[in-house]
Design goal:
Elements: E1 2-6, H1 10-21, E2 25-29, H2 36-45, E3 49-52, H3 54-59, E4 63-66, H4 73-77, H5 81-84, E5 88-91, H6 104-110, E6 115-118, H7 125-129, E7 132-133, E8 136-137, E9 139-142, H8 148-159, E10 163-166, H9 173-190
């Protein structure tokens, strides 16, 4: 699968490493590909990765991960709205302290024809980088449309080392967001962030 990652920070970088290792073609959408941190990440991902402009990364992608800071989503997606049409777009951002955690509305405003999903926002980057807990996988809870695009999202979740659990369509995005708060509460109670959630049954 061709995956564009917009935002090469800790969340995007952690997932890029897993997806590159799984054989996906990863394109980092960046402003300056020559930055040392970008080059370092490319070296860690390996031969399945390249860095290019945001527009070029999105152009032939099968799926697009938005992992920029929450406040930067609008300015990031507006110039590429037409290029995102018909693509799977995953919102992994969190607006802590904002009116809402997710940026689905900003993404769909810029690109009304995308297959929008809310995923990869429940845990910290450390968890995404190392998704195994006492030999078991946790769940990635997500929301978005069913059908063929859903299969792409679930494949990416599995290839990042997690078990996918769809909670429903975009009307369930607030439920996905509430799980973030639950995870923060559990991590605080346990005194550490190395904890994941798993559904039994």
């Amino acid at each position: 699968m061709k995956v564009a990652i917009i935002g090469y920070g800790k969340i995007g970088g952690s997932l890029a490493k897993h997806w590159g290792a799984a054989g996906h073609q990863v394109a980092l959408g960046v402003r300056d590909a020559s930055k040392p941190e970008v080059q370092q990440l490319l070296g860690e991902i390996g031969s399945n990765a390249r860095a290019t402009s945001v527009a070029e990364a999105v152009a032939d992608a099968d799926a697009v991960l938005i992992a920029v800071p929450g406040a930067a989503v609008s300015e990031t997606v507006q110039p590429i709205g037409k290029a995102l049409a018909g693509k799977v777009v995953i919102d992994a951002t969190n607006n802590r302290g904002g009116s809402g955690f997710n940026n689905i509305d900003k993404i769909t405003a810029a690109a009304p024809d995308v297959f929008a999903y809310r995923a990869f926002n429940t845990y910290g980057f450390e968890n995404l980088l190392d998704p195994t807990y006492q030999g078991e996988q946790g769940e990635i809870f997500y929301a978005g449309p069913d059908g063929e695009p859903q299969a792409r999202v679930e494949q990416l979740i599995k290839d990042a080392g997690w078990r996918p659990l769809r909670l429903g369509g975009l009307d369930q995005v607030p439920v996905v967001d509430s799980i973030v708060l639950l995870w923060f509460g559990i991590a605080g109670a346990k005194g550490g962030r190395h904890v994941a959630l798993k559904v039994i049954g």
